[in-house]
Amino acid sequence: MPSVPGPLTRQFISVKPQLVGNGLKVISYNILAPRYASYNSYVPPQLLAWEHRRELVLQELSHYGADLVALQECDEAFFGAELAAWMAKAGMKGSFVPRPVGPVPGPTEGIAVLWRAEALELVAAPRNLLFSELGPQVAGLPAEVAGTQPWLKLRELGEGAVMALLRHRDSGRLLVFSCTHAFWNPVFPDVKALQVALLCGELAAFSKQAAAEQGGGGGGGGEATAPAPVPVPVVLCGDFNSLAEKRQPDVFDPQVPEGARQVSGVYQLLSGGTLAPDHPDHPHTRVWKPGPMAPTVIPAGGEGAPRFPALPLSASGLRLGSLNALAFGREPPLTTRTATFAGTLDYVWLSQPGLEVTAALSLPFEDGGSPPLMAPGAAAAGPGAAASTQPGTWRDPVADVAMVPVPNEEYGSDHLAVGGEVQFV
Q1: Minimal CA–CA distance to 32: which of 11, 18, 53, 6?
Q2: What pTM was computed for the model?
Q3: N or C: which end of the chain has fewer CB within 10 A?
């Protein structure tokens, strides 16, 4: 496979050059915690060593110069030492949330949000949450779902999120900046959908509360007639461990017809605001029974009671758009590439219509699709600007993309950073 450009060649492709002012660069990046590196045994040991990879990660973060950075699989010791020193030099502040239960033993890792203090002011202490500690009512669900198999599985896990309320210094506008890392196991798309539904419920409530407490609405007309505060815009970043779409059947989704398009439950929930009970990833449809290693998915109506009710999952009124899809008209075919897997799992979600994409971070490969995802020299704005109104070409992440497995000599993680520049509407 041919070599690909290194991360320090990636550029921000302008897609709305006519819009200037109040722009914020945002980056989301799963940096591969040391405790999980053993899964990447295809990488030579010297290139997999954290001492090598951490320097690459810091160089890459410096290259992007983002105002908002969301990290997943961030090692706690790294956050408190090397990253803290880098943040001090770069003028960044941040907050770290550990994951108390992880897939394998090892040093503590978690998620983190960083913001550039010169551009953004922290309004209140960041709010940390664990999905396992939240009740069904947070996602607008009845109490009885807590006894179902998917919910019991959710209670065993350690994933969560962090939410920070920031004020943009130049414009005075408020912004909710959030980071999450959904459950990794592809056998449990229903549990991931529940995690995201809970996160949306918390984000929606946090956004509305921030608007009310920070003077987001009201006027001189008195409390009875004052308009409701407009919710604060949300930037939600993370590794959602969920594909934007699947076109070929596999061991996890054998029911996908050849050539058809199946959107994951998490992506459908975030992009469409709801997940119907008949979706293959909905906990009502994906009935399963525990097995010795992992649950076996069985057809709806089979074993595995108690059954999750046939109720739609909701994004609690959040209207979100994926930054890459808004900019390019399509998701990239991959944001992670290992020796055995390639696909898009990483996203930056933006409130719509509260935030607009003015630039997108180029991808380090050309997949032959339309519009292009790379920046050829000084990137032209035309393809990206036109692409925002129509779907782009889908490309197979393995067969159509000349992307080498990572990490390697230049890339410090098995994921690619994603992001761009956004502006308040």
Answers
A1: 53
A2: 0.91
A3: N
